[in-house]
Amino acid sequence: MINHVCFGEAGMFYSGGVTEHIARARECFLQSGNVPVMQVRPAIVESWRRSRLSGVSYDDLNPPYFEDLDTEGRLVLAAAPVLDRLEQTLSDAPVSLILTDAQGRLLDRRVDHGSFRRHLDSIWLAPGFSFAEEHVGTNGIGTARETRQITFVGGSEHFAAPLHAMACATAPITDPLTGRLAGLVDITCWSPGDGPVMSAVVCSAAGDIERRLLELGSERERKLLEGFMAAKRHRGQAIVAVADGLTMANRRAVDLLAPSDHAILRDMVAELLRAGGKHAIRLVLSRGEQVRIRFNPVEPNSAVVKISLTDGPRSTPRPRIRPADLKLAGTSTVFANVCADLAMHRQTYTQVLLEGEPGVGKVALARAVHSWYSPERPFIVIESDADVAGRCRAALGAPGGTVVLRHVESFADDARAAVMDWLDTIAEDADRVWVVATTDIGAELPEDLPGRLPATLTVPPLRHHIEDVRELVPALLSTFTPGRSVSCGPEAMRVLLRSTWPGNVTDLAQALRHALARRRVGQIQPEDLPESCHATGSHVLTRWESIERDAIIGALLETHGDKAAAADLLGISRATIYRRINAYGITTAETRSD
Ligand SMILES: Nc1ncnc2c1ncn2[C@@H]1O[C@H](COP(=O)(O)OP(=O)(O)OP(=O)(O)O)[C@@H](O)[C@H]1O
What we know:
- There is one protein chain.
- The protein is built from 23 helices and 17 strands.
- The chain is of the alpha/beta class.
- A 5-stranded antiparallel β-sheet has the order 2-1-5-4-3, sandwiched between helices. The protein has a 5-stranded antiparallel β-sheet with strand order 7-6-10-9-8, with helices on both faces. It has a 5-stranded parallel β-sheet with strand order 12-13-14-11-15, with helices on both faces.
- Helix 3 packs antiparallel against helix 7 and helix 16 (469-480) packs across helix 18 (504-518).
- The two termini are 45 Å apart.
- The protein binds adenosine-5'-triphosphate.
């Protein structure tokens, strides 16, 4: 799995007087942002740049400490005998062996030598502390994590001066089951160290740990594999098995699904597992094929998914329309796909059920697609408290227009009946009207409604495309304060990117309005944002982490805050659920009350 050694590109290791050049180059970089040509390895200069951009201090060390790290998990278990063996070989030498998780947080440290251990403690290179680049700048652990390559960093190559006495080599450990970074293994000693030898040691240790990770595949993964193998016997179908951080696909599924489809599929399985109800849904893949997806839960958190094409390759290609064309903010694949799919349905006047959590932008999306195709035609939004029958009749006189039935699940019985009649009428009408019915995710719909709305699309919650917050914020600010120069400062943006946005874009807009009431010009700062934005986890959640967090919240709500029952429901240990609740900063009403 390890394919590249970071120092190899320049073939350079320094010794003697050369290290003084590096120290001078670092000074020069800190003052001017530039480095004299060829004095420092390019990978190190890149890392210095990243460290500077992250605002890391170069004369001080301040790594954050994490209490609830997974020190009994599969990685620690897999690494323990490998570290034991190496520790015995190195015995009393002033050398330390370190294992970190995928975030660069120390899970295990082996060091026999007393004064060396005290020095490591003094620079916080100890269990629980994070040596990610964004916290301490260029160092073996953090830089290997960023580059996913074996990395040696010695002496003044470290960004922060307190690390200049050290040399370290680190290798990334890839989980062979998921293909993702599982952690990092590091060897640290006094500078200058021996780059090639230290790198060879960690490279071999990482390989041994990866082999053990494979052997230690969890019970859940084994069950999933069995389910996958059983499903594969039905030849001709595309099969994907999905679990925490793990996806297996047969050849047909690999051919059928683009990488962005995998991400959507994983999200969808998580949602379906949480909702517990539906077992078959339709989906339009990113290359345009319409498929039916059937899924069988294997364990509370995993499922085997069978995918079949519903109508062969699609005749209507998905239009190449991006959110920006529709004047919507967002560049993520998930959001861009929904925009393009809705536009495709508008092209063929296919009536759509548009589902999604409150505030995800369902009506905004329908309006944007309508304006792209027929801005001069009427756009009518019918809500539950309106004269539904009257407004439906009026819409018949608006050919080419768009009618949005907003939250159709909340229409009273007589309004629903009026809507059904009206949908039947327009189905026979030559003058087309495009209908988009919006609904909350999982809401109960009248039985005969889905038959009248042939396409269903799901607008993802904001936390599933959290990166779009970067575009949404300036877009919303410019709508709220036209002509005023207010922007969002980088610190405040980091807070916004960490938030979970239960009320989605509506919530984000609310938070920005709150901030604007405090800061009328200049840059919005974290303290301008409402309290709710700050009650978040410790880092920007990855896509999968946010799915995991949602699953835990769902289980807690279902079990009325009973953590043990929620852990059972999810098939994880009680200790794990406590750790994850703390890590994600989950504070539902139920968790607060205990
Ligand atoms: N991608 C986007 N770009 C810019 N603004 C957006 C975007 N998505 C949503 N908004 C804005 O967010 C707000 C909420 O959107 P909207 O009312 O369409 O959500 P909704 O899902 O229909 O909500 P509800 O479920 O409450 O009816 C609106 O002010 C809308 O303009």
